[in-house]
Amino acid sequence: MGRLPEFHRPGYTLSWTSQYAASCTTSSSDNGWIGNVNLSGARTFTSIPVGTHTYTLTCTNVSGTVSDTVTVYVVAPLSGNISVAYAKLLLDAPNLGQPAQSLSGTASGGEPPYSIIVHVRTPTGSEMTFSKNGSSWSLTPASSSIPIFGTTEEGTWTAWAVITDLAGRTFRTTSITWAVSWHPVHGRP
What we know:
single chain, mainly beta, Immunoglobulin-like, four-stranded antiparallel beta sheet, 1 helix, disordered N terminus
């Protein structure tokens, strides 16, 4: 047995081969695999909960006993979301005494800490990116350094986030949109 890599699914297979052994037994940190086993073989584990799982194979013969241990790390899938504070805004809203846009989101699973790149696409297709960190983040006019953030062009704006965890896994959120118009959202004056 050797060290297994980290797995991203709740299932894996352990295999072993012994030479000159008379008997072999196993034990596991979660008590899910204990007892006598064949001298060589494989066992598939499914629906394994998130966490650290350690397995030990011990084989004996007239000369003595030898053990080998492997540890498997099962992590929750990386995920996250993004939300918008306002579904509809006025063009250059802060200049009219109205709010600019704010975005917020979360990251979970995988291995923290999280690095987030927030993508914002204007109605004319220009794209801006903003770096954020943590399991909970926000992008406001103040943190974007754009006082009229998300209101500089008329039309439909789009935003999404790409989350990266410590191990380099990535997750892209679904896209969100908001509308910006030059007239009040309840109708023309």
